[in-house]
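Support request from a user on the community tier.

User writes: "When I paste my C-alpha cells into the form, the page sometimes reloads and wipes my input. The last time it worked, I copied everything first. Here is what I submitted, just in case something in the input itself triggers the reload:"
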C-alpha cells in the first residue's frame, strides 16, 4: 500500500538514480539507499562505483545521478575548499548550508559513524603500555614504533595535527609502509602502532584496539545522503526513507560491513545490505 502511494506521484519511466564512489563502504551505502527506496515502492537505477568524489559530484551537477553518500569532511575540504574544522555538528551545518546555496542539493541526516583517521594497536600492545587514548599514546611514543603512510607524516590532518593537539608523538621508530600493509606491520610485530581509518574491517579481523581521540585532533567524516533538490521534490519519500536508517550506522556496524566485503569471505555489497536489513527492520 505504501509502495503504491509512493509510485502514484511518479510519472511513467522516472527512476531515482543512486550513485556511489568506488570503495566498499560507499558500495554498501549506495546499495542500502537503493534497497530502502525500492522497499518504499520507488523505481531505482543503480550507478554505483563511479570513482572519486570529483566524479560523483560532477555526475550530480550534470543530473546523471540523483543522490549518493558523501562524507562531511570530504565535502568541506575537497568540494567546498574550506579550511579543516573539528566540530562535527558545525561541519555538518556548514556543508548542508553551502551545498544548498551553491548546488541546490540537500544533505539528509548524518549517520553517527565517523570514518576518520585513527591509530590502532593489538590488544597485547595496548595492555603492555597501558594505552587507551591518544593522550596515552603521545606519552608512550618514545617507546613505540609506528607504521604510517608517507602521506600521514605530512598532511595537516595527520601527524602534524596530533602533535599540535597533544604534544609529544615523537616515536622510537617510524616505519613507512604502503596503505594496504599498515595492519600487516602490526601482525608481523614490525610496529607497535599503525595508522588506521576508524571503520576499517581489519579492526574486527585482527581484534585491534582503536585509541580514543580524547582531544579531537582528527576532523569528522560522517556520512549522509546528498540529494539533488529536483529529485527530492519529485520523490518526497526519499528523505524519510533514508533518514530512518542513519541512526543505525555506527562505527561497529560499518567495520563489520567492511570486513564482510573486504575480508576472507569477499561478500557482495547487495548481500550484505540484505542481511543488514533483515537484522535491522526499518519501518
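"...and here is what came back when it finally went through:"
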Amino acid at each position: 500500500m505504501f509502495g503504491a502511494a509512493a509510485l502514484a506521484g511518479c510519472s511513467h519511466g522516472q527512476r531515482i538514480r543512486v550513485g556511489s564512489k568506488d570503495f566498499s563502504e560507499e558500495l554498501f551505502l549506495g546499495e542500502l539507499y537503493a534497497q530502502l527506496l525500492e522497499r518504499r515502492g520507488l523505481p531505482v537505477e543503480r550507478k554505483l562505483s563511479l570513482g572519486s568524489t570529483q566524479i560523483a559530484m560532477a555526475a550530480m551537477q550534470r543530473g546523471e545521478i540523483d543522490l549518493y553518500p558523501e562524507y562531511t569532511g570530504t565535502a568541506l575540504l575537497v568540494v567546498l575548499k574550506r579550511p579543516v574544522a573539528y566540530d562535527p555538528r558545525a561541519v555538518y551545518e556548514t556543508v548542508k548550508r553551502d551545498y544548498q546555496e551553491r548546488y541546490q542539493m540537500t544533505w539528509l541526516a548524518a549517520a553517527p559513524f565517523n570514518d576518520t583517521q585513527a591509530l590502532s594497536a593489538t590488544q597485547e600492545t595496548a595492555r603492555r603500555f597501558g594505552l587507551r587514548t591518544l593522550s596515552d599514546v603521545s606519552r608512550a611514543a618514545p617507546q613505540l614504533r609506528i607504521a604510517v603512510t608517507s602521506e600521514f607524516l605530512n598532511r595537516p590532518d595527520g601527524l602534524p595535527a596530533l602533535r599540535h593537539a597533544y604534544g609529544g608523538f615523537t616515536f622510537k621508530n617510524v616505519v613507512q609502509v604502503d596503505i594496504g600493509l599498515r595492519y600487516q606491520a602490526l601482525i608481523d610485530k614490525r610496529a607497535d602502532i599503525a595508522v588506521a581509518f576508524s571503520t576499517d574491517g581489519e579492526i574486527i579481523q585482527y581484534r585491534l584496539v582503536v585509541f580514543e581521540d580524547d582531544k579531537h585532533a582528527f576532523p569528522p567524516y560522517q556520512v549522509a545522503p546528498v540529494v539533488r533538490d529536483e529529485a527530492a521534490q519529485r520523490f518526497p519519500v526519499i528523505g524519510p526513507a533514508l533518514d530512518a536508517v542513519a541512526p543505525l550506522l555506527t562505527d561497529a556496524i560499518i567495520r563489520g560491513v567492511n570486513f564482510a566485503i573486504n575480508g576472507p569471505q569477499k561478500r557482495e555489497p547487495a548481500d550484505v545490505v540484505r542481511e543488514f536489513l533483515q537484522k535491522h527492520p526499518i519501518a
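Agent notes: The reload is a front-end session timeout and is unrelated to the input. The domain at 117-210 is CATH 3.40.190.120 (D-Maltodextrin-Binding Protein; domain 2). The first strand starts at residue 16 and ends at 19. Escalated to web team.
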